[in-house]
Amino acid sequence: MRVRSSLRALKQKPGSVVVRRHGRVVVVNRTNPRWKSRQG
Q: Considering only CA atoms, which of 38, 37, 33 is closest in space to residue 15?
């Protein structure tokens, strides 16, 4: 899972969902699972 400086580019892609898990912000994309990332 990638760590990016800004999740804004990934959360604007179609099918992406922003989730908080264990104090981290995680972006999970259901259409393209390659675009997973976390911040924090």
A: 33
Q: Is the Cβ–Cβ distance between 32 and 13 less than 8 Å?
A: yes
Contact 39, 4 (CB under 8 A): yes
Give, for 2, the enclosing helix (H) or strand (E): strand 2-3
- Per the DSSP assignment, residues forming a β-bridge with 27 are 18, 37
Regarding pTM above 0.70, the answer is yes
Residue of 13, 31, 15, 14 lying closest to 4 (CA atoms): 13
pLDDT in tens, the chain (40 residues): 667 778 888 888 899 999 999 999 999 999 988 888 888 7
